[in-house]
## 1
Amino acid sequence: MGANSDKRGRMSGKFDHRIERKGTGCIKYDRRPELDPFWVADMDFASAPEILEALHRRVDHGVFGYAQPHAGLNEAVIDYLRVRRGVEIPLEQIVHLGGLVPALSLAVKAFCKGGAVMTCTPVYPPFVGVHQDSGARLDTIDHVMTDLGWGFDWDAMERAVTPDLRVFLLCNPQNPLGRVFTRGEIERLADFCERHDLVLVSDEIHCDLIFDEKATPHVSALNLPEKFQSRVIALLSPSKTWNIAGLGYAFAVVPDDSLRRRFSAARGHTLAEINALSYYAAEAAYRHGESWRVELVDYLRGNRDALVDFIERRCPTLKVAAGEATYLAWIDARGMGVENPAKHFEEKAGLFLSDGAFFGWPGFVRFNFGCPRERMMEGLEKIAKAL
Ligand SMILES: Cc1ncc(COP(=O)(O)O)c(C=O)c1O
């Protein structure tokens, strides 16, 4: 990671540098300033220098009227899809958005009228909330431990299908489990969607944060055989990888014309124009951010390994499986014998962790290790002490 040693021989590199975030109006630190936060999914790192430069250039222009995607952004997105996702996507199949969560909500609104949506839990909380925006029903199925790690309970999914089921929401890579589903799993899921005539909405926001792309390559819904493409909505964004979530930019790829029209029409007048700066940040991320990304993933892999090692050695009542992607660790705290582990860590250690109950699984906590290693270790020490 381009690390240097300081005078005492300690390693330090750009991701080791601690940046004060308190008082910058960020959710993570300023919502509960009295707590030490390892919750919401953004990182404590400055974004890539190439992105900061692009933003400075755009800010220096000084005029921030309504924006549209400029040619450079469109090219960068299409090149990204070709080079990183292995698909040739014509521009008209892309729907630009100010965030990915609104897209989940739009998909349910567009395709679930009077019907139901299915997803597997534990999962990023909006997956179990967006059905409320349009009065749809939600059916959840628990993920189960399989030979591949946390996987799908195919039998339970089949049993839960009802005639009014319309949409399946997939999170791949999976937040919070950190799984990168295999081609076999994704194709089986597509087949499930085809047999029950479901729209497959695939949230792939974490797909550039995979620790070993050779061992666990990302299989996008866009990589599925052609026959499935008429039911696919793939949702992507540079926001997690380059730590620009607060700027708000994401995009949907909807290969089928009719599906895309219905998805876009569901927006009505509910979504604001997209932030003029976000387009330039996204362009710079996709065009110039690859070497920074590779260094970041390397650093995060080191954090993941140190975290798993710490929990195994020092926290006998906790369990964690090494995730294959994301900077989020899903920790089984049921062995602690307390009703609400997140609350316990808050009260005993002043920590702000994500409560598994919001993901559908009480008794678990999610720990965000997208931070300097030294800071992560301090948080883990607090956890060990509070056990
Ligand atoms: C799986 C997943 N989807 C979507 C989001 C948020 O996307 P956005 O900020 O673009 O709405 C997150 C943020 O943590 C996430 O983990």
## 2
Amino acid sequence: MLEKINSPEDVKKLNIEEKKELAEEIRKYILEIVSENGGHLASNLGVVELTIALHSVFDLPTDKIVWDVGHQTYIHKIITGRREELKTLRKLNGIAGFPKTKESETDCFNTGHSSTSISAALGMARARDLKGESNSVLAVIGDGALTGGMALEALNDVGWSQTKMTVILNDNEMSISKNIGGVNMLLSKLRTKKTYNNSSDAVKRVIVKIPGIGMPIVKIIQRIKRSIKQLIIPTMFFEDIGFKYLGPVDGHDIEALERMLKISKELKGPVLIHVLTKKGKGYEIAEKNPDKFHATGPFNLETGEGKKKKKKDYSKVMGEKLVELAHKNEKIVAITASMKDGTGLTQFAKEFPKRFFDIGIAEQHAIGVAAGMAKGGSIPVVPIYASFYQRAYDQVIHDVAMQNLPVVMCVDRAGVVGADGETHQGTLDMAFFRLVPNLTIMAPKNFKELEDMLEFAVNLNKPVVIRYPRGGEDEYKIEKQEKLELGKAEILKEGKDLTIIAIGKTVARAMKVAKKLEQEKEGTTVEVINCRFLKPIDSQTIKQSIEKTKHVITIEDGTIINGLATAVQEVITEEQIEGVKVKNYAYPDNYIEHGSVEELEKIYHVDEETIENDLKDFLSEEMLV
Ligand SMILES: Cc1ncc(C[n+]2csc(CCOP(=O)(O)OP(=O)(O)O)c2C)c(N)n1
């Protein structure tokens, strides 16, 4: 069946039994690909029938579907002509793991960060109305993403303005782990009612007749609506804020889904269809461990075991150290925006359930709450991925830094993260945090330094950022570990010909480059500075070194704008250091696509080999003895 699917038209031609068969084949295909390439498995397995139904009822690209987060679009990509290409999923130059407008005109809007879909769909619907067109616009959003402020702000606007559009609420009771919050409580009330399809024979009979019967559809819908209201809905929340609520409907029943979608098409104003799905559906191991299989690396299909051995990573080191510190200091609390496991807080949550807060996929709220708790005497530690910290920028400035509150902001997955691509690369955080007055910004060279920085941060009594990368520490071990001092860099090795200044994960690279260069050019010595603090930067140490060597390079895992390169340039200007040759290694002023970290480092010339080769030209001939 799958071989024949080259476009949505091919799906539309299938009868219901064929569609069910297709669903099973798609599941197998996705399992094959994700077990090889890694990716978001459980969320995709949960929306196979929903995606088939959507493509059966709507016509893309005329109709628009905005997928929230967009991690669940593998089936959509298969159906819209990208079946074979999906084998390159998340690989360099291959199919992206999220919707990309440049990949297909059926991907109408790029996503990657949670809770944006309803706003974007509303915008498209409004633009459609202004043009006098009549296509359908839908947002597909999970119950997890619905906890995000932007989604709730959008519901508020849609319901009130009565713009015609449909919100498909894909409710699997899970964010990455179990969903939380008041919205979740509301949904669980709705969920516990019998599904729409089973609840009322009267309703069922009416709906079954929709395509063929002679009665005007509007009348049927009015009757259905009344029936639903009387028989099914235990609370009128969505209706009260202006939506027509349909559901709940079994998200694995293609026929029922198609009926609901057809009804929504005919209704005026905003409609919300509450779809119940099972995360990981059809792959028992994922059904039992939906959080583990939310996003996975390559794994063995039989056992579910990861193909690569899981090594210790920075998140885990942060989490373990935090537990240790929390035992000593009861003011320490931890806050997560729905990423307990990913950010290393699992153990903390177990040991200190009263001091652990999962606040939903709501990073701006996380920092707002942290500011309040800090004001109240707690020491909040808030690990959030670098690209998701973008969400909380105003809260960092307005709520935390302006009031100089002691919030420890752990910026996990800082730098290039690889296969998740441009929405998830953490290359901008140094640039935007550096602008914020009162912030201290640090980045550790290895695990040990992260532990020291965390301890330093919880005792600093000021707003502080610690940024660290995805994955483990470099295989190049650096033993030297000077005591941390606010705003002091660490000279890892002294030299007379060249200064290399690095921060965070690039420090090990700097050491390797320095050693290589010294080996190749006998007599040449290189000074390596572990910057440690991007802010306040150690101007004096940098000045003394540059004045001596007159040659400086910077290496960082972030954008060229307003990070380490800029900070060092400012030192050179302010300290009026003359006759210095400077070279900067950083990512360009652009968005970085998906690929492995190693590939991307090479492409953007920040890898060890490129820097080494470059340096031979950079250092003048007479210097290289
Ligand atoms: C702003 C932001 N924060 C965090 C994430 C990480 N994240 C990706 S998917 C996800 C859970 C989404 O849950 P839900 O919307 O219910 O979708 P499901 O995967 O369960 O289908 C989270 C927290 C994100 N993509 N964007």
